[in-house]
Amino acid sequence: MSEESAPLRVGIAGIAGRLGRVAAAAVREAEGIELTGGVVSERTELDEVGYVRSLDELLARGEIDVLLDVATHPGSERWTRAAVGRGIPIVSGSSGWEERTLDEIGELAKKERVPALFVPNFAIGAVVMIRIAAEIARTFPRAEIIEMHHDTKRDAPSGTAKVTAKKMEAAGAEHVAIHSVRLPGLVAHQEIVFGSRGEMLTLRHDSLSRESFSDGILAALRGVHRLPPGLHVGLDLVL
């Protein structure tokens, strides 16, 4: 597939969800990208043109170059496995994956020679925050994370917080505790508090609406084909 001669054909798993609707709007407005349709769960009415129940039905509408997974479990895992098994690159923003399952997806992606990109947070500001936090941790090794999300988010702690803590600890931080808040009115927020003798340093990122994820989604869709086969984690890999 040549980006110059043909549009990037994208299917969206979880297209009827809140993030799925934002992703669909971003793809429809983007140049050089075509939305071929979306997969929805059994709980969702098939009241939109292009909504289907399975990857087979989606592919019957036409070939796709990448599947964007923003669904919830168990549909997320089912559709991701199906796409990778068919040799279709995957970008997943779904949360709550077990490490064992991610490893299995990674092995399958290597076997099928396709890239699988898992993005804990599509907000570009969050990517910058994680990178800066790892750098600060070299000088301030004592820190804790407070992550705050909407009350319908199923997993805690968030994938963003876990990745942040992992990268901070790899840079030299001591064990980084994570505190989770789930309340109505929130979208996605993370605060990292560093402490040292006689001083504190606070780093914070706020997604005030889900539209903050649009640019990161498009960057991931356009960049996933440049990655080697296998499992990759983090939006920074394609920025």
What would you say this structure looks like, in words?
This protein has two domains: 8-118 and 212-238, NAD(P)-binding Rossmann-like Domain (Rossmann fold); 124-208, Dihydrodipicolinate Reductase, domain 2 (2-Layer Sandwich), CATH 3.30.360. It has helices at 18-29, 55-60, 75-85, 99-112, 124-137, 159-170, 214-223; strands at residues 8-13, 33-39, 51-52, 66-69, 90-92, 115-118, 143-149, 177-182, 188-196, 199-207, 230-233. The protein has 239 residues and is of the alpha/beta class. The protein has seven helices and eleven strands. Helices cover 33% and strands 26% of the residues. It has a seven-stranded parallel sheet with strand order 3-2-1-4-5-6-11, with helices on both faces. It has a four-stranded mixed sheet with strand order 8-7-9-10, with helices on one face.
Write the SSE topology:
Layout: E1 8-13, H1 18-29, E2 33-39, E3 51-52, H2 55-60, E4 66-69, H3 75-85, E5 90-92, H4 99-112, E6 115-118, H5 124-137, E7 143-149, H6 159-170, E8 177-182, E9 188-196, E10 199-207, H7 214-223, E11 230-233
Parallel strand pairs: 1-2, 1-4, 2-3, 4-5, 5-6, 6-11, 7-8
Antiparallel strand pairs: 7-9, 9-10
**Largest sheet, spatial ordering of strands:** 3-2-1-4-5-6-11
Shape: globular
CATH T-level fold name of the largest domain: Rossmann fold
The Cα radius of gyration reads 18 Å
Number of domains: 2
The CATH C-level name of the largest domain is Alpha Beta
Which regions have little confidence, pLDDT < 50, spanning 5+ residues? Answer: none
Fraction in beta strands: 25-35%
**Chain-averaged pLDDT:** 92
